[in-house]
Design a protein that fits this description.
The protein has nine helices and eleven strands. It is α/β, with parallel strands linked by helices. The strands form two sheets. Strands 3, 4, 5, 6, 7, 8, 9, 10 and 11 form a nine-stranded mixed sheet that branches. The protein has a two-stranded antiparallel sheet with strand order 1-2. Helix 1 crosses helix 2, helix 1 packs across helix 4 and helix 5 packs across helix 9. It is rod-shaped, with a radius of gyration of 30 Å.
């Protein structure tokens, strides 16, 4: 059913005269009559009946007019929700890796709670491969992901990508160890990410340049657990520099080639003008 015709019926139920409906909506009485007739054909039943020189709604017309209240309110709400200039309202679903959630998303949520109190951000912790699949299925609206300069992501055509920040990575070892060339760790056990292969790709590239193949023994997701394994003497790993690692762990510079993790905000192409998404992206880019 054409929502414009539903509006004619709703106004007719309120005003009681096609002439008054025409005056209210700035159209002709003939146009109102034709619209109501077309709506009756869509509905498959008569919606008005003669009442002297005027018309009145049939019982079916009254029921449809009641439905029209809800339908038109929903349409107006949808238009407002999609208006790029509208106030951000509703829920935004974000899938992201833990560091980006802590560093970027949580501060953004705190700021947006003050500036846009009717915007709700729902947080889901996921590594990039998982986040991309959720984004592809429209199960989330925004993905916070990463890659490395030595293991770049191949972006999909439907992605809009905003780079957020980058951080240098180094070699995480026990704090009592002296700095040594990477080749000195050829016989050590290595720890890599259990849910994403990018850091293992970087490790294998660096090891190849240093002339060895790393012995990957442990696969864990949490950086805090990586710290624990290093302190326990169970291996070494690539870790971000400047992060507050557990006492007993230090992160050595790798020298050249340098390794840099790059964080991104990724959305489906064409979605960036949705007010909640636009507000969150602007805050992330600002921070």
């Amino acid at each position: 059913m054409d929502v414009r015709r539903l509006r004619l019926l709703l106004e007719l139920s309120r005003l009681g005269s096609m002439h008054e409906v025409a005056a209210e909506l700035g159209t002709s009485t003939s146009s109102v009559s034709q619209g109501i007739s077309a709506l009756a054909r869509d509905a498959g039943t008569a919606l008005v009946e003669p009442d002297g020189r005027r018309v009145r709604l049939t019982p079916a017309g009254h029921r449809l007019a009641e439905h029209a209240v809800t339908i038109l309110a929903a349409v107006d709400a949808a238009r407002l929700d999609l208006d790029p200039s509208a106030e951000p309202v509703g829920s935004l679903r974000v899938a992201g890796f833990a560091t980006a959630i802590r560093r970027s998303l949580v501060p953004a949520i705190a700021h947006l709670a003050q500036s846009h109190p009717r915007l709700e951000v729902r947080v889901h912790e996921h590594e990039p491969p998982e986040a991309y699949e959720l984004l592809a299925r429209d199960d989330v609206d925004l993905a916070l992901t990463y890659d490395y300069n030595l293991a770049s992501t191949s972006w999909r055509r439907e992605h809009d990508v905003t780079k957020l920040w980058e951080v240098e990575w180094g070699l995480g070892v026990r704090s009592n160890e002296r700095r040594a060339p990477l080749a000195a760790y050829a016989d050590r056990d290595w720890i890599v990410n259990s849910r994403h292969t990018a850091d293992e790709e970087v490790l294998r590239t660096l090891a190849s340049l240093a002339g060895f193949a790393p012995r990957v023994v442990h696969r864990v997701d949490s950086l805090e657990l990586v710290d624990d394994l290093i302190v326990a003497g169970l291996g070494v790993a690539l870790l971000p520099r400047g992060r507050g690692s557990r006492r007993g762990v230090k992160v050595l510079s790798l020298g050249e080639p340098r390794v840099r993790l790059r964080a991104y905000a990724v959305t489906r192409r064409g979605r960036e003008q949705w007010p909640p998404l636009r507000a969150v992206l602007a805050r992330l880019a600002h921070d």
